[in-house]
Amino acid sequence: MRVLLAGATGVIGRQTVPVLTAAGHQVTGLAVRPAHLPGARVIAQGVAYAYDPAGSPVKDEDAPRWRHPPAQFVPVLAALGDMERQVTGAGGLVLRLGQLYGPGTTHAPEGGFTRHLRAGKVPVVGALNIVDDQPTLVREWLPDLAGACNTRARERLDWKPTYSSWRDGMAVQPVSG
Predict the structure, then answer these.
(1) E strand spans, the chain
(2) Residue ranges per structural domain of the chain
(3) Which CATH class for the 2-171 domain?
(4) What is the dihedral of CA 71, 76, 82, 86, to 10 degrees?
(5) Are 148 and 49 in contact (CB under 8 A)?
(6) pTM value?
(7) How far apart (Å, rounded) are the C-alpha atoms in residues 39 and 1?
(8) For the segment 114-143, what is each residue's pLDDT rounded down to a tens digit?
């Protein structure tokens, strides 16, 4: 199969291109008009954390996008919707990715966000915590707020993630001194 992979040099693309090539696919990393490439499959990157917070905390692909977001997110959600319509209209597939972690990402032990966090550059200086009396780690409550279900990807692509949870994935990441 011929595959057009947007972001072939990004975090996902660098891992995906060798796998697709080894499986016998012809991979194209960039095209101006993917709909004009006969036989090519357009695959685009979306996000799995733009769902409406109402309803079940774990969302599948049929869940609606955030219906009444803060004003600064309105154009982002509109762009995501437009991109998904264009890609699926061209017969392509949108992979809605969750938060990336691991080698090459901003959340890796040596990643940009992690370095800023360790250096005290994440803007939390001078803040007061206005919370209840029982501290809870973000990792405990965030999944209930922004969970995304991968059941459909598992079934349709016969796929499974390398690590079944972010806990397992982060546990194997090397941390340098």
Answers:
(1) 2-5, 26-28, 40-47, 58-59, 93-97, 147-148
(2) 2-171
(3) alpha beta
(4) 180
(5) yes
(6) 0.54
(7) 8
(8) 888 888 776 654 444 545 566 666 666 555
